[in-house]
Amino acid sequence: MSNLDKLRISIDNLDKKILELVSKRADCAKKIGTLKKDGVIYKPEREAQIYRKLIEKNKGPLSSESIRSIFSSIISSCRALEKKLAVSFLGPQGTFSEEAAIKRFGNNIQFVPAASIDEVFSNVQSNESQYGVVPVENSTEGAVSRTLDLLLSSDLKICGEVILPIHHNLMASVGNLKSIKKVYSHGQSLAQCHNWLMNHLPNVETQAVLSNSEGVRLAKKEKGSAAIASERAANLYNLKVIRENIEDEKTNTTRFLILSSQDTKKSGDDKTSIVVATKNKPGAIADLVQPFAKNKVSMTKLESRPAKIGMWEYVFFIDLDGHHDDPKIKKSLTEVETKASFLKHLGSYPKY
């Protein structure tokens, strides 16, 4: 018997053991589902702890991201034994929002594509979906304004986040640049590929649409049109990728938020998001954030947005390092509330 044959027999035996263990895990998950009293299937804090322990124990040769991907599929399938989660995202199929949903929840879910970010919020608020996935900021283009505005007005909570590397591809029915007269994509994607488009397609019209996948759909049916989207979108809609990775910044990354109606317990490594407003007076901002410095709470983000209640009035979106039940954060927020004209807790959730 050759070494190759021996290794193949070893793999067959290992696969059998893996199958047995996965089946045992699924059986345990099913029993846990019958013991839960709150009826909540997805526990972000618990799943975050599972991934962290696995990555900590991983000695290779598989990367941490590969381990996360493998166990995401296992956990998703085990979770579905209780009930398939309905997850809404900016659709249609093939968007980066869908990729973020798969990265967080796995493939064994009920996909609920939405036509807009507003519709994602509406689907979760009306219980058509248990969870929603929305983009909140991009490393190149900054904050997604509509998401911030809806977080301010909505009663939904942030229960998780996903950090997704974004790679844009130019695709069309034909395989050359010379035939392209128009390029469709989401406004954010067009902005993230602005320099490439100026250098390679300087005289070509660009048109922003509601989603990258909508752009792909239009490009497929219009002669001389192309789209900017993910490789997954090209495969789904059977278009040819003409140029890969055309984003201007190769470290281009988008942060997505997971929305739900539930509060999330401590996972051990968490983040808290709040939005506050203060009176328009000298030193108001410094006075507002002073309790965080005093109580040694790290602020990881400070983003201002017009409050839409008066000229030059602003609200401030703040991310804090820790959970709102942590004594230091709890004390800080109590102090901030006495200084702010408005404070809203958007959610505490595991760091990705």
Automatic annotation (TrEMBL):
The record marks T254 as: Essential for prephenate dehydratase activity. Keywords: Amino-acid biosynthesis, Aromatic amino acid biosynthesis, Cytoplasm, Isomerase, Lyase, Multifunctional enzyme, Phenylalanine biosynthesis. Its main location: cytoplasm. It comes from the Bacteria. Residues 1-86 form the Chorismate mutase domain. It is found in: Cytoplasm. Residues 86-261 form the Prephenate dehydratase domain. Coiled coil: none annotated. Residues 273-350 form the ACT domain. Pathway: Amino-acid biosynthesis; L-phenylalanine biosynthesis; phenylpyruvate from prephenate: step 1/1; Metabolic intermediate biosynthesis; prephenate biosynthesis; prephenate from chorismate: step 1/1. One of its GO terms (molecular function) is chorismate mutase activity. SUPFAM superfamilies: ACT-like, Chorismate mutase II, Periplasmic binding protein-like II. It catalyses: prephenate + H(+) = 3-phenylpyruvate + CO2 + H2O; chorismate = prephenate. SMART domains: CM_2. GO terms for cellular component: cytoplasm. GO terms for biological process: chorismate metabolic process; L-phenylalanine biosynthetic process. Its EC number is 4.2.1.51, 5.4.99.5. PANTHER family: PREPHENATE DEHYDRATASE P PROTEIN, PREPHENATE DEHYDRATASE-RELATED. Catalyzes the Claisen rearrangement of chorismate to prephenate and the decarboxylation/dehydration of prephenate to phenylpyruvate. This is Bifunctional chorismate mutase/prephenate dehydratase.
